[in-house]
Hints:
By secondary structure, this protein is an alpha/beta fold. It has helices spanning 5-15, 34-44, 86-107, 132-142, 158-165, 195-203, and strands at residues 25-28, 47-50, 53-58, 61-70, 75-77, 120-127, 148-155, 170-175. The strands form two sheets. The chain has a five-stranded parallel β-sheet with strand order 2-1-6-7-8, sandwiched between helices. A three-stranded antiparallel β-sheet has the order 3-4-5. A hairpin with a 2-residue loop joins strand 3 (53-58) and strand 4. The two termini are 26 Å apart.
Amino acid sequence: MFRDRLDAAERLARRLSHLKGHDPLILAIPRGAVPMGRLIADALEGDLDVVLVRKLGAPGNPEFAIGAVSEDGSVALEETARRYREEAVTRETERQRELLEERRRRYTPVRAPIDPKGRIVVVVDDGSATGATMAAALSTLRSRGPQTLIAAMGAAPPDTVARLETLADEVVCLETPWNFQAVGQFFADFRQVEDDEVIALLGSEHG
């Protein structure tokens, strides 16, 4: 169990300490992972940005992921998406895509997203249940030509880690229990991160 997200981030930074001096690009999945990304970027003397992906919730059961959509518009659907009517899935996809566009305008209004091409890229999340969101982030970034693509997270079940290992060059996951139920079960403090905090963290300098 982690005290909070920063506790997990400190442990991930230690596991990734070999990247210090190599100008890594730390891309956090909002909102929860942004405080983690700030700590890791500062520890490794790298840059911080967000990678914008959103889980697609099942119609009538929004907590159940049936896929994910990325900022560039690409959609990755799980097998389970076939259970639902196509127009319902399309409607959910459009809703999440609009939210991503609005988030980018709010989070980094004075600059473009940092280009991952040729960089060592670390995608950070607090945890991943199905892997849908992290998988979408990795697939989107892979097409943009990073030198190395690493997925880093606090907790995920073993089958999710195995899935992500097919998409990333390396997966660093601190906890991989078989009895995984939800990401929040691994954090004593799993408070929601608000947009104002995300904006402040993305605008702050190293240290």
